[in-house]
Amino acid sequence: MKEALLLQLELDRLNADYAAALDERRFDDWPGFFLEDGHYIVQGRENFDRGLPLALIALESRGMMKDRVYGITQTIFHRPYYTRHVVGAARVLPSQEGDEPGLVRAQANYAVFRTRPGDASEVYNVGRYIDEIVRTDEGLKFRSRRCVYDSEMVLNSLIYPI
């Protein structure tokens, strides 16, 4: 029981740190939450539920995430906005046949709010994180983070990570 509670605390801390990095616009820190060959996927619920691979974003390495950060910070011009992530408690999922030792499967609900300077806040994206997490010498890292969003429409363009 003690190990389960400690794992819960670690997962919730990982999610809180992840959200804080994005909300504080520390985008250069974002790839560091992943393994070198980590995956980051933003996918609509309809495609996920049907087992279809189409996703808005599908990054297959930390290098691809760094390229995304470069685009966000250096090349993409858009009307500025701030985000606020609200992440629910993580739920540890049962392991699956063939899982490597130490792999943790977890899921957490999220809501991301967007605020444009001088304007009202609005719900930007709502869904769930479906994660595969491993313990490294540097702490917990995502092997895979799949953001499955419930909205059928994504407001404007998806620029910042979810």
Keywords:
alpha+beta; Nuclear Transport Factor 2, Chain: A; 7 strands
- The helix/strand series, from N terminus to C terminus, equals HEHEHEEEEE
Helix-strand makeup class: alpha+beta
Instruction: Tell me the number of structural domains.
Output: 1
What's the helix count?
3
Label the CATH architecture: Roll
CATH C-level category: Alpha Beta
Distance between the termini: 32 Å
Flag low-confidence runs: none
Give me the Rg, rounded.
Answer: 16 Å
Mean pLDDT: 94
Helical amount:
25-40%
Beta percentage is 35-45%
How would you characterize this protein structure?
With 162 residues, this protein is α+β, with helices and mostly antiparallel strands. It has a single domain, classed as Nuclear Transport Factor 2, Chain: A, CATH 3.10.450. Helices cover 25% and strands 38% of the residues. The protein has three helices and seven strands. The protein has helices at 2-23, 45-49, 62-75; strands at residues 34-44, 57-59, 82-87, 91-93, 104-115, 121-136, 139-149. Strands 1, 2, 3, 4, 5, 6 and 7 form a seven-stranded mixed sheet that branches. A hairpin with a 2-residue loop joins strand 6 (121-136) and strand 7. The radius of gyration is 16 Å and the shape is globular. The protein starts with a helix and ends in a 13-residue tail after the last strand. The relative contact order is 0.22.
